[in-house]
């Protein structure tokens, strides 16, 4: 590629997005834009008198350098596919919800909620800024879904639509049944209490018919509670018993059944409502605890598969005609186009063009690989050069990426959990309760049949381990909520239990301890004049690659020279003729033809701590050295955690920074360099064989084996919606310094669970003492049972909340 460009002009910023402008050639009046895309967005807003967008925030827009192709959203013309994306449609009005990752400020909210000013057929639009979601409704007869998406993309807010989103739409009913059950239980609880007020106030209802009628109405209200709302526990208990395993739902189910059976007897025999109010309250609080346990952040899907990262459509090429189709319709033998920056969705053969494939999505290291016509290109690679044409070799589900992904789904080793402890406790607890209840019945049977029955029933009711069942979900559920507010997203409460047992921490380096988007560059060798440095800067200014930009800004010289010709070969380097001399910046032994460069070092994919060489007329005259830039929180976090945890570093990079890292990790023995993904996983296995509970912090799919193998795998990410499939949690990079606080808080939460266990057991022992003597009535026992559950919920929730405030998490 050869092009002539003016030298960049320093200190020009885009009026729309704030990016640096290489020239002032794109402008409207005094407003300068970095590209035609940003200028177009401004023109659209200005034409509709919506430039208040720029008054709310300075340069609020997103760069439009990568303007979408006109037919990019052609796949949305497919009626079936579009209907699967819509939330609702009656043929006249449709509603849809999009994820808008570009949303970042009040200007974004204002513009997105004023879409009706851009198109009169958009009826309304509402923004959920926290989740970066946009919900809008539009007139179906006048506007298509494709046109809506194109409108959003044209103003810089292209929705993120993944291949996996289509499947999520059909799974939106998850957990609704549990909410229905809790709602019915709450309705029954309130109404049964209302109808039972004569019993609470000891009012003598002289009209026996009225009293009996109320009792049967209460019984009718209780039937759906017992058979529908209580089914969660009965089914679980039955499944456990079929497998000859007594889980914690067995004694809970036994208590519910006993309470219901005794109440039915009271209704039929004596015409009073029995203890149905306590039954309803018990079920309501148990279901509430189950919902709290199951509820995590819906905006994050931890069970992601490879489809989540693939585009929703692909450009099919047939008989010279290009057509965009849904990715799901791509078949073996189809030929399709992949343009610069696009992900390759299936293992394919390169049919035409020059492939320069970046496999960082798979390997985690940015080392593009050259591919020639006839060679195999694996799924998961990203083309970084001009457009290429590929022919599908394997179905998407059979691709190398899919196999790699599935291989990383390593099953965790079995380990101690509170849920397991509760089930183990309930196994012996159930037999003990049945034994005590039976002995109490036999003891009192000889003297008083009524006392014997009451003793049997009250023991079963009062000893129901409901508080034990609720303590873990409410404690760790509240901890999940607190962590989420601090940008630490945990998969489920099971992970929190594991996190509390961690004693060893293993760190990845690149992208975890270092910043992905930042690196330091310096001129390491070369005696250049100011004029020569100005020419090198001018050459780098003609490339839009991030590394070229870093070189450009590292040179503090004015650039008033023109590059007569400019050539950039992806992965090799850049060169141009300036004042009759050939300047080149790139890999070692860069030849005049550049395409014949023989070095194994890639310029545009330069590894961290590597060197980029400067050539003038084919002679090497100097070099730049690129260094890691560590996150500012890195030293403090590692030194803090070293006091309590055994810490290690695993890195795929070389050992050029060993001296600095040794000061952080205390010794060279803690450091491992040039580690492949398999090496990282084996090292975790070795630690676990030494009975270590390992927390792995990394990023990228290349860490997936280690993340999945570890007891807890946490992905550190600049973007919390992009993370390894094997991660148990996502930690936003901006809260890296809070890792010690999170670990400490998790251990404190576990201590709170132990305390609630003690409270629950003491309660049951005291209840036993009075119940076996026949001193408690079933009514009093049934009231005490939900009260004990409520007390545990209040204790765990308040304690974790107060603790979070003390630690600065709330």
Class from secondary-structure proportions: alpha+beta
| CATH architecture descriptor name of the domain at 490-515 and 631-746 | 3-Layer(aba) Sandwich
The radius of gyration over CA amounts to 33 Å
What name does the CATH topology of the domain at 490-515 and 631-746 carry? Rossmann fold
Low-confidence stretches: 1-10, 169-174, 296-305, 405-416, 589-609, 720-724
What is the number of E strands?
28
How can the largest sheet be summarized?
7 strands, mixed
Strand percentage: 15-25%
Q: Look at the structure and give the CATH class of the domain at 490-515 and 631-746.
A: Alpha Beta
| CATH homologous superfamily assignment of the domain at 490-515 and 631-746 | HAD superfamily/HAD-like
Measured between the Cα atoms of the first and last residue, the distance is 55 Å
How many helices?
Answer: 26
Mean pLDDT: 76
Q: Within the largest sheet, what's the order of strands?
A: 16-28-27-26-17-24-25
State the helical fraction: 40-55%
Describe the structure.
- The protein has 810 residues and is α+β, with helices and mostly antiparallel strands.
- Among the domains are: 1-67, no CATH class; 74-169, Alpha-Beta Plaits; 173-295; 490-515 and 631-746, 3-Layer(aba) Sandwich (Rossmann fold); 516-630, Calcium-transporting ATPase, cytoplasmic domain N.
- The strands form six sheets. The chain has a seven-stranded mixed beta sheet with strand order 16-28-27-26-17-24-25, with helices on both faces. Strands 8-7-9-15-10-13 form a six-stranded antiparallel beta sheet, with no helix packed on it. A six-stranded antiparallel beta sheet has the order 18-23-22-21-20-19, covered by helices on one side.
- α7 (176-195) runs antiparallel to α9 and α17 packs parallel to α26.
- The protein starts with 26 loop residues before the first strand and ends with a helix.
- The model is unreliable at 1-10, 169-174, 296-305, 405-416, 589-609 and 720-724 (pLDDT under 50).
